[in-house]
Amino acid sequence: MRWLKFILIITIGLFGVYSASMYFVDESKTFSHQSQVDYPVDKVFPQFNNLQNFTSWNDYFSSQQNLSYSFFTPYQGIGSGMSFSEKKGQLLGDFFIRYSNPNQSLRYQLFENDNENPYLIDVKFVPKGSKTILYWNIHTPRRSYLQRSLNLIKEDFFVNNIDKSMKNLDQLLGNKVDRDQKLASVKYDSIMVENQEGQLLLGVNVSTKNTKDGLFKNVLMNHGKVINYVTSDLGKKEDEFGAPVLLTNPANLKDKEISYFYGVPLSKRIPISDNNFNFQTLNASKVFVVYFQGNYNNRVKNIQQLMQKAKKDTVRTGQLIEEFLEEPVDIQNVKLKLSLPVYR
Questions:
Q1: How many whole angstroms separate alpha carbon 190 and alpha carbon 195?
Q2: Residue 140 Cα distances to 9, 83, 107, 148, angstroms
Q3: Which residue from 27, 69, 124, 210 lies 20 to 30 Å from 311 (Cα-Cα)?
C-alpha cells in the first residue's frame, strides 16, 4: 500500500513538473531549413506542384507502406488536395496546395488526424544554374497546454524528413533526366517503321466533346483518374507501370464527339474492384510511327501523314496509339509518340 502511495506521489510530482515546464514552450513554433536539388527549377517544381508526384518521393508519405490516398481535382496547383489513410480505412490526415507561383513558391497545409489547426509549409525555389536551392519555412499548429512538448521534437522530425526526401527526389529526377536525354535524340515529324510488342493496358473508356481545348482537359482529368487508381488503389510505384497510352479511331478525329481509351501498361493482369476500369490488349504488330512535340491540337497533321502513308502502301490500319512521353500538363507543349498499327 505504501508503494502505491509512493508511486502515486511521484507520478503527480512528475506531472506537475511537466505541466510547469510547458509554460515556457510556445503553443506553436516556426522554423526554417535550406536544401538543394541538383537539377534545374523547371524539373524540380512540377514534383512539388503535383501531389501525386509529391507522395512518390517525399519521405513523410513514401516511407509508410500501409497508406492509401484519395486525390482531388485539380490534380496540381492551387486548390489540389488529397486525403491519406491507413489501408484499413482510418483517416490519418489531409494535404492541400493553398498557393502556387510556378517555379518560385508554394504553400501547403497539412492536417494530421483530427487536429483542426494545420501545419503551414512554405517552399521557395531559387534557381542556381543547373541546381535549385529550396528554402523551407514550417509553422506548426497551435497545441493545447499539455501537448506543447510535441513542438520540441517536430523540428528534428521535419528536417530529417526533408533531407531524406531530397535524396529520393535526386534519384527520381536522375532517372527522368536519363529518359529526357534519350528523348532529346528523337527525330520529330519523320515517319518510321517499327515492330511493336504486345501490351496489357489498364484504364478507362471515355466519350467526350471534341472541342479545341475540351478534349485535352478531358484527357488531363482521365490521366489523373488512371494514375490515382493505379498508384493509390492498386499500390503500384512509378517503375511498375509504363507511359500513359490513348487509343482512338483516327477516322473520328474531326467528329464533334470522340471516344477513346486511356490507360497505362501493366506487366500482368490483376484483380480490380472498380467497374469504371478495364483491361485492353494491344497485340504485337508492325506500326508506322511519328514523334510529335507542340500544341496537342496540332498532332492531327502528323496523324494524317500516317494515314496517307498507310493508304499509299495499301495496308489496313488499327487503332491510333498516342503514347505520352512526358506527363500531360500543358496543351501547348506535349510530347507524343504516334503509332498506327498496319496489316496486310
A1: 16
A2: 34, 19, 14, 10
A3: 210
Tell me if 148 sits within 8 A of 27, measured CB to CB.
yes
CB 241 within 8 A of CB 223: no
d(CA 71, CA 182): 31
Name residue 185's amino acid: S
Give the C-alpha separation, 149 to 35, whole Å.
26
- Whole-angstrom Cα distance, residue 314 to residue 67? 53
Q: Which three cell numbers stand for residue 286?
A: 508492325
Q: Give 59's contacts (C-beta < 8 A, 6+ positions apart).
A: 161, 164, 165, 168
74: three-class secondary structure by DSSP: coil
**Rama region for 216: left / alpha / beta (φ>0; ψ in -120 to 50; rest):** alpha
Instruction: Please indicate, yes or no, whether the overall pTM of this predicted structure exceeds 0.70.
Output: no
Q: Tell me, what's the pLDDT at 30?
A: 85
Which residues, in sequence order, are CB contacts of 67 under 8 Å at separation 6+? 61, 84, 85, 86, 87, 92
Q: How confident is the model at residue 25 (pLDDT cuts 50, 70, 90)?
A: very low
| Cα R_g (the chain), whole angstroms | 25
Distance CA 140, CA 138 (A): 6
CA distance 270 to 173: 29
Residue 36 and residue 46: Cα distance in Å, rounded? 16
User: Is the dihedral angle over the CA atoms 82, 172, 44, 29 positive or is it negative?
Assistant: positive
Tens-place pLDDT, residues 40-78 = 999 899 999 999 889 888 998 888 877 888 888 888 899
Residue 229: φ, ψ to 5°:
-65, -45
